[in-house]
Structure formats: C-alpha cells, structure tokens
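Fold this sequence, please.
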Amino acid sequence: MGSIHGASYYTIVDGPTWEEAEANAVNLGGHLVTINDAEEHDVVSSIAVKYFKGLKSYYDGTQKYYLRNGSEQSSDIWIGLNDANQEGVWQWSSGEAVDYLREVELYDNNGLQDYGVIREVTGWEWDDQENEYNPNHRYSQKVGIAEIPISSS
C-alpha cells in the first residue's frame, strides 16, 4: 500500500500511540511523515484515503470511525508533528525544520494534546491529539504514516 514521492517511500505503520507509530517508522529506517509543503500534504492525504477505501464507516458525533477486521478504528492518522516539549512550539520527529504548518485545528483544548494527526472529519487537516492508548476506547485505535528515505546506492 506504499507510495513513492520525491526521494521518500510512504507507508502505513501500526500505532496505536504516536510513540509506537514513530518507533515502528524508525524500525523501517524513517520517521513518521514530515509534511514540508501543500504538495506533500496532498500525497499524504491520498495515502490516508487509500488506507480507508472500501471500509464501512459511521459517525459518532463529529468523529468518524471505520470498521476494519471487525474492530472500530478512528479516522485520525499520526504524522511526525508534535509540541510535547513546549506547548505551541511544533517540531517534526525527523528533526527537520517546521517550515510548513496547517494550523486551523492545531490547538490544545485540554493541555494533553501534543501529537499531530491528519483527520478525515476536518478534510484531512491537521489536529493535535492525546498520546494514550486505552483498548476500551475506540478513539485511541490509530495508525501512522511513515516516511522512509529512498537510498540512491
């Protein structure tokens, strides 16, 4: 299900937490995706759309859920963005500079939302979420998108 864009390969990695998704991306030789411009955002959004394509879905309030292999899954997908070190100071897990932000939904309304996702319910805009896993809470069932550099050798 991966996709190539520029000098990177993008693929879905398991979470359910941001830290677990980042660790899985690192194990593949990359990080959770760093989105550097609108074109790359469109690539990442298309990967998310393909990931959920064909699955049954429903809304519970404003949150959209999908049914995959008999389990509910949030439509949120982890990206490498976080402000865990200092609220409002965004950084990429790759260490790249944050030169591009889609800030419409990036606000912390409870003091615990430090990790970036793209969300279908906001038209694949970016949002910040809590980084906790509760197997009894369907909202915490998330995956991430890894960005892996393609070696030229």
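The chain has a mean pLDDT of 89. The helical segments are 18-27, 38-52.
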